[in-house]
# Entry
Amino acid sequence: MSTPSAATPATPPPVGTATAAAPAGTPGRRGALGPVGLVLAGGVSVQFGAALAVTLMPRAGAFGVVTLRLLVAALVLLVVCRPRLRGHSRTDWGTVVVFGLAMAAMNGLFYQAVDRIPLGPAVTLEVLGPLTLSVLASRRAINALWAALALAGVFLLGGGFGSLDPVGIAFAVGAGSMWAAYIVFSARTGRRFPQADGLALAMAVAALVFLPFGVVEAGTRLLDPTTLALGSAVAVLSSVLPYTLELLALRRLPASTFAILMSLEPALAATAGFLILNQALTVTEAAAIALVIAASMGAVRTQVGQGWKRRRKVKGVEG
# Structure
């Protein structure tokens, strides 16, 4: 899996965002939509992988599923990327280790949540982390507006939280905070390591951290052929593909816009839940999804329009 090299932005990016202008010579609006498509493809993959993981939990437990997901993903990425272990600074290693710890915590907390509450509400609560990051990282008032609109949809989609297991709610909110950390350190890792090398190393860190938990909970059940096959599918759908796409996207997309795009996750989770887990949508949930999609489209339009105007301004100065 390869990634285009990022050019230096025409102006410094906001604090907490990826260094993310399109490469020189990239066509206007069409080129700017590239990282957005990567994020959306990753979101579809991760939510269908999460729905598949729910069906696997009776076989291996929540920690067992996370262990299989991270181990298989780490093996695949290490074989494909073959990351160099030499030539990296102490800061580089510190960044990739923290990235791996955030990834492990995000996965562990989320699967504990979906083991207690339905997939849609769990993702709805989890997305509060990226939404908070979008407000804190952005310096533009319009992004706060899109975040507020998405947040309204999140709460509408998650109506009736009072009937949910409070422990499951706490796990989902904790997963959201780790998701925000994942976004920040994914961007930093992408800038410090070539291709997806940093992701492969961080995934290995996460797998090693979670291995004892999985062994204690699932034991020899992790070696069952059917469990291994399903766990491998979850790893590809929920880790290898989406994390790689997101890491590549964060090299060209500000973290604040990326975080607002993550507000699409409840809609994607509801779709996956309907198709795989037979969880039907209500009229209220459909309205909530419409709000979330409107907010995400607004964020994308703002980002693409801003990049287009910036490039036109730079060309005008150079001309």
Observations:
- Confidence is low (pLDDT under 50) at residues 1-32.
